[in-house]
Amino acid sequence: MKVKFWGVRGSLPSPFTSADLEDRLAEVLRRAEGERFDGDAEACRFVQALPAPLRTTAGGNTPCVEVRTAAGDLIILDAGSGIRALGSHLMREGFAEGKGQAWLLFSHTHWDHIHGFPFFAPAYVKGNALRLGGCHDGLESRLRDQHDPRFFPVPFDALSAAITFKQMGGTNWLCNRRVKVSTVKLSHPGDSYAYRLEAEGATIVYATDGEYKRLDAACMAKYVEFFRGADLLIFDAMFTVMESIEKADWGHSSAVVGVELATAANVGTLVLFHHDPESSDSKVAELVRRAREYQNIIPAQHRSEVVVAREGLEIEL
Questions:
Q1: What are phi and psi of 102, to 5 degrees?
Q2: pLDDT tens digit string along 110-154?
Q3: For the purposes of burial, counting CB atoms within 10 Å of the CB of 268, is it exposed (0-12), middle (13-18) or buried (19 or more)?
Q4: DSSP assignment of the chain
Q5: Is the pLDDT of residue 305 over 90?
Q6: Residue 151 confidence (pLDDT)
Q7: pLDDT, tens digit, for every residue of 42-85?
Q8: Domains, the chain, ranges and CATH?
Q9: 272: which residues sit within 8 A by CB, 6+ positions away?
Q10: Could you give the percent of the chain with pLDDT greater than 70?
């Protein structure tokens, strides 16, 4: 399976600003003092050697993750603002001709996880088949409400694609039984659900918008078992440890808890996800640095690879 991240922020979009760009350019110029570049190749090598917060950005779009199987199946996890760019990409892959098929699985229906759907271009093309799944009751009515003329100018019934809804829960088989999907409820206002996708000998767990107040083994057991042996765990690490204490009941977690769970569950790669809209790229990089430091001091026989989610990141399993 292949995974690509199109939106990794939480709560609301947080675009890169002119002030951010100016600060970054100023720091790059300071680091380039005295350097000489005899051609583009040398300039590129200099850029590649810069710290990640200077040469990359996590991006500002809200959650949307693309999953592909070798058999050609497409599963989209959440429809935050990142799904607009994904939709534009899909329109160059047959969806513009009405020949596309995709599953959209929703962790929950808070705005940051659905507000990109009205801008998902493939939904407006006749012939495309979109299957929308979620564990909440009334998923269809929730998405239809977003198209109410008070909130959006295009009614839901104007979407020309063939759209069907499936109530998820427990274990389901998707894509002609090629993809096994399991779910577990997370602690989040209004409930959020994690998804475990298994196909082609690989396992992906998408666990955004979850809070873990009690870290004793008994309370964490069901999550450890759900995450067990995943090749990739996409985990809500919106807060620092202190922020998660200060913002109890907001329904989010920290990178430290992600490390604890990934270690206990023998996860291959832990992806820190759902970044706070107030977090700069430097703060996001600091969170992953501290997570790796914490991982190195806790007693464990297993060490997960820890990476930070950013728009455009691709991982092949």
A1: -155, 150
A2: 999 999 999 999 999 999 999 999 999 999 999 999 999 999 999
A3: middle
A4: -EEEEEE-B-SS--PPPHHHHHHHHHHHHHHTTT---SSHHHHHHHHHTS-HHHH----SPPPEEEEE-TT--EEEE--STHHHHHHHHHTTTTGGGT--EEEEEES--SHHHHTTGGG-GGGGSTT-EEEEEESSTTHHHHHHHHTSTTT-SS-GGG--SEEEEEE--SEEEETTTTEEEEEEEESSTT-EEEEEEEETTEEEEEE-S------SHHHHHHHHHHHTT-SEEEEE--B-HHHHHHTTTS---BHHHHHHHHHHTT-SEEEEESB-TT--HHHHHHHHHHHHHHHHHS--S---EEEE--TT-EEE-
A5: yes
A6: 95
A7: 999 999 999 888 888 999 999 999 999 999 999 999 999 999 99
A8: 2-14+57-311 (3.60.15.10)
A9: 235, 237, 255, 258, 284, 287, 288, 291, 306, 307, 308, 309
A10: 100
Number of CB atoms found within 10 A of residue 292's CB = 17
Contact 212, 220 (CB under 8 A): yes
pLDDT of residue 216: 82
Q: What is the pLDDT of residue 219?
A: 85
Q: At what angle do helices 255-264 and 281-297 cross, to 10 degrees?
A: 40
Higher per-residue confidence, 216 vs 255: 255
How far is residue 157's CA from residue 162's CA, in Å, rounded to a whole number? 11
Q: Pairing relation of β-strands 64-68 and 2-7?
A: antiparallel
